Amino acid sequence: MNEFSLINKYFAESSFVRKDVIIGIGDDAAITQVPQNQSLATTTDTLLKGVHFLANTSPQDIAHKAIAVNLSDLAAMGAEPSWLSLSLTMPDADEVWLQGFSEKVAELTEYFSVQLIGGDTVKGPLSITITAQGFVPQDSVLTRDGAKNGDWIFVTGTLGDAGAGLDILRNKLTGDDASASDYLVARHRRPTPRVLAGTVLRRLASACIDVSDGLLQDVMHIAKASGTGVILHVDRLPISDALRSYVKDLHQAFGYAASAGDDYELLFTVPEEHRNTVQTALDSYSIMHTCIGQMTGAIGKLDLKLNEKPYTLYDCERVGYSHF
Amino acid sequence: MNEFSLINKYFAESSFVRKDVIIGIGDDAAITQVPQNQSLATTTDTLLKGVHFLANTSPQDIAHKAIAVNLSDLAAMGAEPSWLSLSLTMPDADEVWLQGFSEKVAELTEYFSVQLIGGDTVKGPLSITITAQGFVPQDSVLTRDGAKNGDWIFVTGTLGDAGAGLDILRNKLTGDDASASDYLVARHRRPTPRVLAGTVLRRLASACIDVSDGLLQDVMHIAKASGTGVILHVDRLPISDALRSYVKDLHQAFGYAASAGDDYELLFTVPEEHRNTVQTALDSYSIMHTCIGQMTGAIGKLDLKLNEKPYTLYDCERVGYSHF
């Protein structure tokens, strides 16, 4: 099967259809319409077998993660996703794999109301690059550089689940609680991009980022971009019941929550005058959120506290992921 | 070196800067502004070592080709390029390679007035995915599906050079003319996207595509999308002096011109009533163009002619490239 029939068979008709797509898959480029008074948000992420997912990961879970990590980047800017482009490198035209992958793409494009508008297929080591586009009003963009001394640090959802899930899959973490294990592995394999939370935070959060590299690295991205420091209260980090049950040692749970990455929760800062509004708005959408610390004037400095006392992490070496 | 310092060191400040980029490299997504009354054109292409370029290709030539093939797709829609996103998978953080690659990116973004707005870096087999974005007025988009019976078929530049250049590099084609060899290899390594030609053809061409898969495959993409057939006059295919000199046998030159692909010239169809206008407009910009045939009513049928008589190609097996 050649690449044209591949694209046509599995992708051309498997996507949600939007009215703002004038030309989708099938020409040299897609043609789309950005609404007036909206800026365009664009992000690209590549997932490579053995680096971003284990070799035995299902095509459904690979599709889920590839889409989720890109939508998460848009969410962190406060943008509403609209279109996806997919470049798929795969060793052979495995129809079972393509069936599973494209069904998940269809399901998620429908769920998030985004359209697959184009892409490329190449023969080679399994790798997926997605470019996601979306809209955000220009005066509502969430960035990393707006945090001020005294702003409160919040995070959506719970932290550390994905890292624990990955360690379970790698046999680096073992335990008895099968349902907790399933939950943690699912959080690793099928992260939830916080798209709605991102739009709710527009004009309220002073800075925002998604937790992909790990909380400590990501909070320091905000601090460095904003010219501030950070106090984090480790005892306030939101830990899921599953993680607490599975790892037993609470300090190990704190280690996962602080450093493991891949949670794709939103980490954001809020000025005192918006604190109540943010909490009320997120509550009204039932979006879990936790205040975990505060920005400081100590530029570039990270203070970890446990019950108000200085704290050193259980696993200090594990501070995020570096490719090179 | 970690991926953040890689991106910052080599790419964050190496690109042309545009006023319509509100946030470029360095946040979770880029934020840009599409002009009012313009549609957005988006295309993605992946180049993989060993598939799209030979293992010994210089980083400069890889950067050139990765950018050119994407801008060529925009040109084929009549779009003016604006922004690039780059996902770079490489086996290690080779600083000499990155220096060469990023210098060429900087040079070409300047030349085409496009800004690098984001991307990703991953450790793995050398592969480059670029997403290019641009603008085109909605009523001026060039597509594949507008050709009508009787429309004239034109192509910019010369055909077959890139294919001959690749065969020279692979030692499948040999000859004495060193300067012709250099020219053909350069045409393979550093194709020219016909961006200006694409904008000139807006509202004049009835259909357009770039010659990437090979003339015969690409003209049939237009024919199938438009519901027409094709007559091509092989004796009218534009052959460069270098190709004619190097291959000696004119029929072999026709074979390269018809089938070899990777020329990235624009192939387009023109209704009789626009024929003079198109030729005058392209002449006024010194854009070489040649009428090579005509669309017919014989849906899906391709007739090759040599001096008005039916013709069979020198190398009929070589009809474009298929990945799977």
Structure commentary:
The structure is a homodimer. Chain A has helices at about 5-10, 60-75, 95-110, 160-170, 180-190, 195-200, 215-225, 240-245, 250-260, 275-285; strands at about 20-25, 30, 40-50, 80-90, 115-125, 125-135, 150-155, 205-210, 230-235, 265-270, 290-295, 300-305, 310. In chain A, the strands form three sheets. In chain A, strands 8-10-7-11-9-12-13 form a seven-stranded mixed β-sheet, sandwiched between helices. In chain A, strands 3-6-4-5 form a four-stranded mixed β-sheet. Chain A is globular, with a radius of gyration of 20 Å. In chain A, a hairpin with a 2-residue loop joins β12 and β13 (about 310). In chain A, α5 packs across α8. Chain A is built from ten helices and 13 strands. The first copy, chain A, folds into two domains: about 5-140, PurM-like, N-terminal domain (60s Ribosomal Protein L30, Chain: A, 2-Layer Sandwich), CATH 3.30.1330; about 150-310, PurM-like C-terminal domain (Phosphoribosyl-aminoimidazole Synthetase, Chain A, domain 2, Alpha-Beta Complex), CATH 3.90.650. The model of chain A is unreliable at about 315-320 (pLDDT under 50). With about 325 residues, chain A is an alpha+beta fold. Chains A, B: Pathway: Cofactor biosynthesis; thiamine diphosphate biosynthesis; thiamine diphosphate from thiamine phosphate: step 1/1.
